[in-house]
Amino acid sequence: MNEIDGPLFDAELDGSEIKIDRNPDLADRIHRLVSGQPFCILCTQGQSQPYGSLIAYAFTDDLKHFFFNTQIATRKFKLLNECRRVALVIDSRCQHMDDMTRVDAVTVTGKAEQIQRGPEYQQGAEKLKARHPYLADFLDSTSTALFRIDVVRYLHVTRFQELSQWIP
Amino acid sequence: MDPLNRIIIPLSRAAEAEEKLIGGKAAKLSRLLRAGFRIPDGFCITVHAYRRFIKLNRLDDKIKFELGRKSFESMRWEEIWDAALRIRSAFQTAELPTGIKDPIVKAFVQLGTEKTLAVRSTAPKEDSARASFAGLHESYVGVKGEKGLLDAVRLVWASLWSDAALLYQHELGLDPLNSSMAVVVQELVEEHISGVAFGCDPRNPKSDRAIIEAVPGLCRDLVDGVLDPSRWILKRSSGQVIETRSGEREKEKPPAPLLSADDLRQIYHALQGIETLFGWPPDVEWTGIDEQFTLLQARPVTTSEPKPRDDKAYYLTLRPGERRLKELAKRVTRELIPQLQDEGENMAAEDMSQLDDGGLAEVIDSRQRSLEKWKKIYWDDFIPFAHGVRHLATYYNDAVRPRDPYEFVGLLKGQSMISTARNDKIVDLARQLRAQPALMESLDRLTAGPDVRFDSREGLSAHMAAQPGGVELTAAFEHLLDHYMDVSYGGERVKNQPVQVLKNILEMARARKLPEASGRDLDSVSALEKKLLDAVGPDRRAEAEEVLSIGRVSWKLRDDDNLLLGRIESQFIRALNEGAERLVSAGRLQSGVEPDDKSSAVITSALRNSEGGKVVIPNEEQKPPVSSRKRSKVKPRQLIGQPAAPGLVSGRVRIIRSPKDLGDFQAGEVLVCDAIQPTMTHLVPLAGAIIERRGGMLIHGAIIAREMGIPCVNGVENAAERLEDGELVTVDGHLGIVTVGEAEFDLEVRLANVEMEKQKCNGR
Q1: CB B176 within 8 A of CB B165
Q2: Dihedral sign (CA A143, A149, A155, A159)
Q3: Half-sphere CA count of B438, side-chain side, radius 13 A
Q4: With an 8 Å Cβ cutoff, are A73 and B64 in contact?
Q5: For A13-166, CATH number?
Q6: Distance (Å, whole) CA B504 – CA B501
Q7: Which fold has domain B193-300?
Q8: What is the pLDDT of residue B452?
């Protein structure tokens, strides 16, 4: 098990129970959640300081990879270069503002890699543009960096406390 | 297809359709047709086509992004125009899905593909008694062929997002994202006579007057102001003609009456019939007479209140058509600019020392009047003429369909302007200095030394000339000051700040590379020119060349007029200063007071009254600009503006507020100002990047920065107040973002250290 794959949280955190789940139903549910949200929170860190940023994202159908872009003068770009370990938080709270128990949320852990200009950049950029056409100018700009997150696992929460892990 | 989702409805069947599906214009036309009026044959492209086009191309995202970048209230008209241009460009390049295209083409085939068309906007709720969008949305007349039709349809849809439409919707409190657009496509009926008619007088709706206007040929020529119409004023109650005015048309002097008494009666009865049908006095466009009398459109007569000059709506008047632009080009280039130039030169040549005090007072008054006159001309003629560049923009984009809607800016390169000639002189001086390091060093010491101050130009020139090798350079420097720096900037004469100008030249001489003289890189200009001419084809070559020529002259004069007007203002300040100096010498005015236009009446009155006593100028205390940062805990980290010139550069901020700040500018710094004026474009080659409060892709700073490859973000609200001299910023001209400071966590780290120390202490 390498550094990235190691357990990131203690199982007894908040009294919630983590169960390893390869249940396709959960995968579908996560897929629906990830497809249904345009934005998520990207969590980065540097100088022992956690940092959160709202980002627009795209993902591969197998949920193994995410894509996002950032302008290179940003704090998150600097932090991503200092530490590639990241997390994403995606949730459906906007749809269930009045009922917390119906909110789905996933924390996605993984490793972010900057994609250099070339065919892979084009592919990732196309995926982002397909979900977020207004990003076209950003993605074409030389002051933009495109990142791919290689997902390690999903931690899915529903009914406020029910937590499951899914490894894609 | 579900009738509710129909893309096409023939006008003959449109009376059954709801207005929200086919728009106001088409709904009224179809009711007129059913009531027995003659209207041109055609069909309506319903709002479903527009909505599907928007949805399939995700254009609503693009629109939200363009209009959500800044608050609408904080956008200048230029920025709204730019956003509208980018949205228009997105409509032009978006895919037209077959589900929309095929029904349109089928309807066109049924109408007759050989026919020339009128493609008009027909937006739901566009012409109500409360609001009239007349003239705000586009219509295209003389459209031919399938491609022409489909292009025109896209442009009509895009006109829902024009600067004018956006401003009007905002004024009415409407959300344009909830608006929609249908299109009515009709055969173009070309009769020998056309006109407009009003069921009541729009200027005085309660009077017993109706109005009929007519021109020979197309109605479009009347609406666009190409032809001066003949006008008849009739009694609204009886149709009796009470006033006749013949239009001033060339080739026909005196013009033959266009309409007979029978013709007028026919149109009057049509007005009455339409009023009965709709219940309101109509404003109609018509063509043909007698049996050919055809209605082109009918809407309620609306009255409009004049807008104050500073209202954004004023800018909507700045959309002169080609004819008006041609007239302006002639008037501005042949009359106004030469007059403005002559006046400035004459003023500069006048020796005021020979005048007695009364004579000097006359000169001050006359210069102030001249300045006011030219400021009025600036608003009335120069600013509307500046639209020539925008006309070129839309013309180029319609013909070439470039990916970058600002590609056309390359066509403006290499224009010979007063500012480029001045900048070339400055580069020449810098080159001379580079060749004489010893002279450069001594001038460096002269201008930087804390003990040496040059309040007068003569003092500086004497010192310069006294340096080894300084005589020739001093002569060239004096020429530069007299011929190019006799302009005002921020109410001060740049010429009166010779040290600041010299410091700019020294800084340029020290820079790693001298800026290239203007007028280079004409290959890229020729390539763009060819692209445009190839796109329009040989038939429209002459038209394209004219649009190009007007666009270029408009751009060149937009720069020159500012400098020439700046010279008049500088000469007014010169006369005012001379008056103030005389009063100081006579012991009547305290020295050190800087008079301005508000105090000129006090100065001239004192000059005329030699027996008078002490003169007090009510001087407004000039408070030094205070950064809002000093008063606020809020610190900007990322500022948003318009991506005016591409590139990414980090550098230290240098804020320029007046000519006194010019000399401090160092190569590589980020130039921050309210707006790059033509008076200060010589700083641009030294700048690492530019940040301006004034926004727009076609303003001076933006175009010059683009030409020189310097990143520029403009439209940054309160840029000079929110940034501080010496602050590190990263200017992203690709995306219109200014990042302030380093991405650090100093505060958090410091706090963590303090807590660690506390814990250590507690542990002890």
Answers
A1: yes
A2: positive
A3: 5
A4: no
A5: 2.30.110.10
A6: 5
A7: D-amino Acid Aminotransferase; Chain A, domain 1 (3.30.470)
A8: 52
User: Hey, which residues 560-589 in chain B have their CB within 8 Å of chain A?
Assistant: none
Look at A144 and B64 and tell me if their CB atoms are within 8 Å.
Answer: no
Confidence of residue A48 (pLDDT cuts 50, 70, 90): confident
Low-confidence ranges of chain B (pLDDT < 50): 1, 129, 306-310, 312
Q: Looking at the DSSP assignment, which residues form a beta bridge with residue A158? A: A162
For domain B3-187, which architecture applies? 2-Layer Sandwich (3.30)
| Residue B642 three-state SS | strand
For the cut 90, the answer to whether the pLDDT of residue A120 exceeds it is yes
Q: Do A138 and B732 touch (CB under 8 A)?
A: no
- Give the residue-averaged pLDDT of A39-57: 94
Give the pLDDT confidence score for residue B252 in this predicted structure.
Answer: 56
Q: Given this model, what pLDDT does residue B158 score?
A: 94
Cβ-Cβ contacts under 8 Å between A and B: the total is 54
Q: Taking CA atoms, what residue in A is nearest to B748? A: A49
Nearest to B487 by CA among B433, B373, B381, B564: B564
Q: Is B745 in Cβ contact with A143 (below 8 Å)?
A: no
Query: With an 8 Å Cβ cutoff, are B737 and A71 in contact?
Result: yes
pLDDT at B166 (0 to 100): 87
Cβ of residue A127 closer than 8 Å to a chain B Cβ? no
Give the residue among B82, B137, B146 at the shortest CA–CA distance from B108.
Answer: B146
Sorted by where each begins, the domain ranges of chain A are: 13-166
Distance in angstroms (rounded) separating the CA atoms of residues A140 and B81: 23
CA of A35 vs chain B CAs: smallest distance (Å): 17
**Per-residue model confidence (pLDDT) at position B446:** 79
Q: What is the pTM of this model?
A: 0.81
Total Cβ atoms within 10 A of residue A68:
26
Query: What DSSP state is assigned to residue B256?
Result: P
Report pLDDT for B331.
92
Local confidence band at A17 (pLDDT 50, 70, 90 cut-offs):
very low
Q: What is the pLDDT of residue B430?
A: 92
* The CATH number, out of the four listed (3.40.50.720, 2.40.30.110, 3.50.30.10, 3.40.350.10), of the domain defined by the range B635-746: 3.50.30.10
Q: Does A119 touch chain B (CB under 8 A)?
A: no
B379 at the A interface (CB within 8 A)?
no
Nearest residue in chain A measured CA to CA from B744: A75
pLDDT at position B126: 64
Residue A123 has pLDDT above 60, yes or no: yes
Residue of A nearest to B643 (CA): A137
Q: DSSP strand E in B453-554: where?
A: 488-489, 492-493
Q: What is the pLDDT of residue A7?
A: 36
